[in-house]
């Protein structure tokens, strides 16, 4: 179980995984928290929109409709791979589902698929998935014929991996709506075991943060990750918190310090230098606060999510 990511933390996690993000309208305060719980979080749920077109699909998922008010998810994944953030908090996406599936997701102990579901919204044994899952709606008609472009599948993989990486979850924390409720068929057109396999492969390596294209533009949209046409740079994998607590002298520390200075998070009087010290810790604490962390989560000791977002150049 995990505490929900803040808006800044979610954007940072997605960007660190190479996701092209568009912040749509007032998504940061758009939620259904007034009608029910939001958290603790246990996983990520994938859906298809049963719609076509980016703009209309994004507006639908932001506003919802009379019988089901928005937001209808947290992010809408367009066919070009852009992720439009439309909600931050409880969203009407999962509905009721099977408690055995939830238990398997929490334990991450199932095989290729979670146990078969025999519950749904309104059934006697259903549990509230809107409180427990991040939701991504993927633009697709859901008829089995509408294609899933490579850029869209890549973004689904990256967005799911980003949240798993941020919370320390495995790929088994990612399920499809059809695996949650016996009344649902989404996503249709690819299999969840295949998606989980690709997410697991991605999580086994350091994030590849280079997005593949320029985000499309919609009124009021705020792009937060520009496209890059150059070859993907190499970034330093997270060396672990223990690495820094052992007071290392390493070019990794120098490279980290230079990135902190570039991000406007310097507490250095001189330097940075290869030797980890108090100025490094205070600088890193500024970076953590910039990402939205607070309290003990902004103590200056690097963690995997903030490190991935910093994009420290590879050092030998």
Describe this structure in words.
- The protein has 316 residues and is of the alpha/beta class.
- It has helices at residues 7-16, 54-63, 99-107, 150-167, 177-180, 192-203, 241-245, 251-262, 278-290, 304-310; strands spanning 21-24, 43-48, 64-65, 68-69, 75-77, 83-85, 96-97, 127-128, 133-138, 174-176, 221-223.
- A seven-stranded mixed beta sheet has the order 10-2-9-5-6-1-11, with helices on both faces. Strands 3-4 form a two-stranded antiparallel ribbon.
- A hairpin with a 2-residue loop joins strand 3 and strand 4.
- Helix 1 crosses helix 10 (304-310), helix 4 packs across helix 6 (192-203) and helix 8 packs across helix 9 (278-290).
- It is elongated.
Summary of the model, kept short:
The protein is an alpha/beta fold and 316 residues long. Helix content is 32%, strand content 11%.
What is the number of beta strands? 11
Low-pLDDT runs of 5+ residues are 212-220, 225-232
Strand neighbour order, sheet with most strands = 10-2-9-5-6-1-11
Q: Characterize the biggest β-sheet.
A: 7 strands, mixed
Query: Distance between the terminal alpha carbons, to the nearest Å?
Result: 36 Å
Proportion of residues in β-strands: 5-15%
Rg, alpha carbons: 20 Å
Number of helices: 10
Task: State mean pLDDT (0 to 100 scale).
Answer: 90
Helix content: 25-40%
Tell me the structural class. Answer: alpha/beta
> Overall 3D geometry?
elongated
What sequence of helices (H) and strands (E) makes up the elements? HEEHEEEEEHEEHEHHEHHHH
